[in-house]
Design goal:
Elements: E1 2-6, H1 11-22, E2 26-31, E3 46-49, H2 55-62, E4 69-72, H3 79-84, H4 86-107, E5 110-114, H5 146-163, E6 168-173, E7 176-177, H6 189-195, E8 199-202, E9 208-210, E10 212-213, H7 214-226, E11 234-237, E12 242-244, H8 245-256, E13 260-263, H9 291-298
Parallel strand pairs: 1-2, 1-4, 2-3, 4-5, 5-6, 6-11, 7-10, 8-13
Antiparallel strand pairs: 9-12
Length: about 300
């Protein structure tokens, strides 16, 4: 199949590209390399350097290549950036999906939009499912929810196009970790804890997450893109094994032989996040790699 992957130089996108080319698909990657690395893109995929906000860059990626499926992963992420660069987060994430929809309509492509559990904001009624309400605090308190609201708007735009006949599927990857994940200040919690000495825990550390191994998630992503009759449906690709951030820090600290320290909590950090994965029976997918197995492989 002919598949276009935006953000294909990044953590999750590059793993997806690897799996797609391994199964014989023709893949084009569109990425501005602001977070991803050229070296992470498979040599069997074509790379186009571009900005997902610019229609001309999308056209370059589609030149002589009519994509059958578009996996739109490109977005600004990194928890600290949500508050400190809220204008950029909203600009890239909202206008990126607008352009993805425009191209999908022009080329009659299936579109897989990558949302996030952050689209539910600080909702604490668990598990988080497709009927859950999104809950965001007042904007004057902080701009932490620039990312979550941008993903919520992305889902809204996608569902609007579904009503008009476009084939759009939605995936919410849930706290994915694995090789190639950034361990800097804008990284994901596992990679940050793998790199830090001492390991820093925000707030009390009692907030929980369900961490999901990247290779499990990629298989679910491919199924959502390829299976028929999924338009308008959304899938939480995640584990349901909760762990507190303090317990995670202690587990990784023991593995690495480093200390744990505490610092101020992050703006708008939800206390608990547990995905409803019941919808995944439709794609015959569930996470199978335990956290201990994943951390062992990552180390």
């Amino acid at each position: 199949m002919r598949i276009l992957v935006t953000g294909g130089a990044g953590f999750l996108g590059s793993h997806l590209v690897d799996s797609l080319v391994a199964q014989g698909d023709e893949v084009v990657v569109l990425d501005d390399l602001s977070r991803g690395h050229r070296s992470q893109i498979s040599s069997k995929a074509k790379f186009v350097h571009g900005d997902v906000r610019l229609i001309e860059d999308w056209k370059k990626a589609c030149k002589d290549f009519d994509p059958e499926i578009i996996h739109h992963l490109a977005a600004v992420n990194g928890t600290r950036r949500f508050h400190n660069q809220a204008d950029l987060v909203v600009d890239v994430n909202v206008n990126g999906v607008r352009m993805a929809i425009k191209i999908a309509k022009e080329y009659s492509s299936k579109l897989v939009f990558y949302s996030s559990p952050e689209a539910f904001g600080e909702q604490e009624n668990m598990p988080l499912g497709n009927e859950s309400q999104s809950l965001f605090t007042p904007a004057h308190l902080h701009q932490r929810h620039s990312y979550g609201t941008s993903k919520h708007i992305g889902e809204l735009l996608c569902q609007f196009e579904v009503r008009k006949g476009l084939d759009v599927r939605i995936v919410r990857p849930c706290n994915v970790y694995g090789p190639r994940l950034h361990g800097d200040e804008n990284g994901q919690v596992v990679s940050m804890m793998m790199a830090a000495d001492p390991i820093v825990v925000h707030g009390t550390g009692m907030q929980t997450r369900c961490l999901t191994w990247v290779y499990d998630v990629v298989q679910g992503m491919i199924r959502v893109g390829e299976m028929p009759n999924l338009s308008g449906k959304a899938y939480n690709l995640g584990s349901t094994d909760e762990i507190s951030m303090l317990e995670l820090a202690q587990k990784i600290a023991d593995l690495r032989g480093v200390d744990v320290v505490f610092t101020e909590p992050n703006h708008g950090d939800s206390k608990r996040r547990l995905p409803d994965v019941s919808m995944n029976t439709e794609i015959d997918w569930f996470a199978t790699t335990s956290l201990d197995e994943g951390l062992g492989q990552l180390l």
